[in-house]
TrEMBL record:
It comes from the Eukaryota. This is FPL domain-containing protein. It comes from Pinguiococcus pyrenoidosus. The keyword Transit peptide does not apply. InterPro entries: CLEC16A/TT9 (IPR039272), CLEC16A/TT9_N (IPR019155). GO terms for cellular component: Golgi apparatus; late endosome. GO terms for biological process: autophagy; endosomal transport; regulation of autophagosome maturation; vacuolar transport. Pfam families: FPL. Coiled coil: none annotated.
Length: 215
């Protein structure tokens, strides 16, 4: 398929100037972790969406900084993100808010992460803790009629599919026996979707899987 557009880059343009320093990012990650531990309903939809959106903006900025310094394997912002299980906190925060807006923003932020991470080690970290599979399995629960959420979900699936190769495919299975792959199962489900674009995207992803298996 066509390579992913730099969704993250678009976040940085047309937005007011803001503090993108490392201390500010550390504070944001701490806020997300704290918010993820609050009772259900205590974090507003707008607050949660803004935290997740800002997270993506910071991570893209960090990636750009590491590239500008000619150190693509040394992304300090990503290292901070990995500390304290911020990824798990993002998933938990979205579950607690349980709104379409928060779910869409989580998918967009995860897409930015998967698209922009450069080193294999960082990509393995993102995929190996099973949070991505958890999102694939649960984020559409009771919302299969939400067209905007479906669009964001399919876009996320396409981004993930571009990262599947013989070294990463193991992380897309949710069980030790490697018999259940949430990404593959969801794409099978979308083959019956009413939307032609959704069906086409699902078929493309499935063909990518099959091509990998035939190598």
């Amino acid at each position: 398929f066509v390579g992913p557009q730099s969704v993250g880059m678009s976040l940085l343009f047309g937005t007011p100037e803001r503090d993108l320093s490392l201390p500010a990012f550390q504070k944001l990650c701490a806020r997300i972790r704290e918010a993820s531990r609050r009772p259900n309903g205590s974090v507003g939809d707008a607050e949660g969406v803004e935290m997740l959106r800002s997270l993506g903006e910071f991570l893209v900025f960090g990636e750009m900084e590491s590239e500008a310094a000619n150190e693509p394997r040394k992304d300090v912002h990503f290292d901070v993100f990995c500390e304290g299980n911020t990824l798990g906190a993002c998933v938990e925060l979205t579950n607690r808010i349980n709104s379409s807006g928060a779910k869409i923003q989580l998918l967009q932020t995860l897409s930015i992460l998967v698209q922009n991470v450069r080193s294999a080690t960082s990509l393995f970290f993102l995929l190996s803790n099973n949070y991505v599979n958890q999102v694939l399995e649960t984020i559409l629960e009771d919302r299969m009629d939400d067209a905007d959420l479906i669009d964001a979900f399919v876009a996320f699936c396409k981004t993930l599919a571009l990262r599947i190769n013989p070294r990463t495919v193991q992380f897309f299975f949710a069980d030790r026996a490697c018999t259940y792959c949430p990404l593959f199962e969801k794409c099978l489900l979308f083959l019956r979707a009413d939307d032609t674009m959704v069906r086409t995207s699902a078929m493309t992803i499935l063909l990518h899987f099959l091509a990998l298996g035939s190598r």
